[in-house]
Structures are given as structure tokens and as C-alpha cells.
TrEMBL record:
This is Ribonuclease. Residues 18-241 form the RNase H type-2 domain. Endonuclease that specifically degrades the RNA of RNA-DNA hybrids. It comes from Candidatus Gottesmanbacteria bacterium RBG_13_37_7. It comes from the Bacteria. Its cofactor is Mg(2+); Mn(2+). Its EC number is 3.1.26.4. One of its GO terms (molecular function) is metal ion binding. GO terms for cellular component: cytoplasm; ribonuclease H2 complex. Manganese or magnesium. Binds 1 divalent metal ion per monomer in the absence of substrate. May bind a second metal ion after substrate binding. PANTHER family: RIBONUCLEASE H2 SUBUNIT A (PTHR10954), RIBONUCLEASE HII (PTHR10954:SF18). InterPro entries: RNase_HII, RNase_HII/HIII, RNase_HII/HIII_dom, RNaseH-like_sf, RNaseH_sf. The keyword Coiled coil does not apply.
Length: 241
């Protein structure tokens, strides 16, 4: 198995960007539940130190595209990621997806995740406890830069479009993007397990809301739940017919 590395992050650190943030989303193609975006950035004190030994230590964790890891491995890797990275997740509910569409809802989730991480890093760097004390200038001083797996996202404070780069297949190339994919996947899977307790007929604890054969059978038998994405399900019904 091949693994992503810090090659791109190192180049950006060398250009003065202290907070290089990987971003990825999970659940975009699901029939039910939220779309979740993850954001991850090696902690500032780590990225500012040219420490190959530390980088090698982190690479031994086995960070990779979440789809390439078993559920058990993902959970273990996620715990290790949290020791070395700032991380955050943002989500858009099925209601938001039904209202705005999946593209806009995904963008909302990405903004939430990145903004959370920007404040998290700023609070730690400034040595304060209340994020209300963090100014725009404090965030700008971190010189954040986004690495995204699929598409640019507008209207992210400080970052804008200028300090973003899209890397196709980034979750298998860039460690920070892979780390974001792992924390997002673990968070969403746990969320779907809990939602399965409220909506047991659809087997969300097994399918995470995706359109598996068992999930489609449940839809045919029980119809949709309050957390299903109506357009996704209607499209499946039309295609079936």
C-alpha cells in the first residue's frame, strides 16, 4: 500500500505558510444523513521545526485515504492524528442538502470545518482561552493555506480563493488531506451509528446512509426517514423504473 506524504506541506511551510490545512469531505454520495467535511493541519510548533525525525514518526501512524483503511484502523489512526494535528469537522444536515443541494451544502460544511480550525489554532498560538478574543489579524498572522481534494470553496475568511489549491486525488497524495478524510469519516460513521438508534429500520449502523442493497430494500419497504435526502432517493427510484 502506498501512503501520502508531506512533500507539498513542506514546500508551503518553506514559503512562509504556517498553517497548511488539508480538507476533505465524506458522505457526499450518501442517501441519508449529513455531509461532513474534515480539516487537519500539523500543529504550528511542529511545522515550523525542520524535524525529519518527527515527520517520519507521524508517517509511521499509517495516515491514508480513509477509504483505504478498515473501520478499526481508521479509529486508531484518528486518535493518533489528534495528537499531532489541529483538526475540526463541519457538517450540513440532510435538511440543508434537501434545501440547498449537495454542492452548496458541502461548501457550507467545509467553511464550518476550516473556520473552527482557524480559531482553534489562533487560540493556541495566542495563549488565550476565549476565541472571542481572536482578531482577524491574529488569524492572518498564521498565514493559512488550504489544500482541498476536489474543488475550491468561496467565502472562507482570510483564506479566500487566493490561498487555496485543489489536488485531484489529494487524499492519497497529501498527508494533511488524508488526515482530514480520516477524522471526517470516523466522526460521520459514529454519528450514523447513533442515528440508527432513532431510525433502526434502515440499517444506518451498517451502511452509513449509503445506497447499499440492504438500504434500498429498506427504502422499498419503509419509505424514507426524516434524515433521508429526498432528491437522492427520488433519483434512485426513477433510475430503478
Amino acid at each position: 500500500m502506498t501512503y501520502p506524504d508531506f512533500s507539498l506541506e513542506k514546500r508551503l511551510w518553506g514559503r512562509g505558510f504556517q498553517l497548511v490545512i488539508g480538507v476533505d469531505e465524506v458522505g457526499r454520495g450518501s442517501f441519508a444523513g449529513p455531509v461532513v467535511a474534515g480539516a487537519a493541519s500539523l500543529r504550528i510548533q511542529n511545522s515550523l521545526v525542520s524535524n525529519q525525525k518527527l515527520i517520519e514518526e507521524i508517517e509511521k501512524i499509517g495516515i491514508n485515504d480513509s477509504k483505504k483503511l478498515s473501520a478499526k484502523k481508521r479509529e486508531k489512526v484518528a486518535e493518533e492524528i489528534k495528537k499531532y494535528f489541529f483538526w475540526a469537522v463541519g457538517e450540513s444536515s440532510s435538511h440543508q442538502i434537501n434545501t440547498f443541494g449537495i454542492v452548496k451544502a458541502t461548501n457550507i460544511a467545509v467553511r464550518k470545518a476550516v473556520i473552527k480550525l482557524l480559531y482553534q489554532a489562533s487560540v493556541e498560538q495566542a495563549g488565550v482561552k476565549d476565541q472571542k478574543l481572536i482578531t482577524k489579524e491574529a488569524i492572518e498572522n498564521l498565514k493559512p493555506y488550504l489544500l482541498l481534494d476536489a474543488f475550491h470553496v468561496r467565502y472562507i475568511p482570510v483564506v479566500g480563493l487566493k490561498y487555496q489549491q485543489v489536488i485531484i486525488g489529494g487524499d492519497v497524495k497529501v498527508t494533511s488531506i488524508a488526515a482530514a478524510s480520516v477524522v471526517a469519516k470516523v466522526y460521520r460513521d459514529d454519528l450514523m451509528v447513533n442515528l440508527a438508534k432513532l431510525y433502526p429500520q434502515w440499517g444506518f449502523e451498517k451502511n452509513s446512509g449509503y445506497g447499499t442493497a440492504g438500504h434500498r430494500e429498506a427504502l422499498a419497504r419503509y419509505g424514507i426517514s426524516a434524515i433521508h435526502r429526498t432528491q437522492f432517493v427520488k433519483k434512485w427510484v426513477v433510475n430503478k423504473e
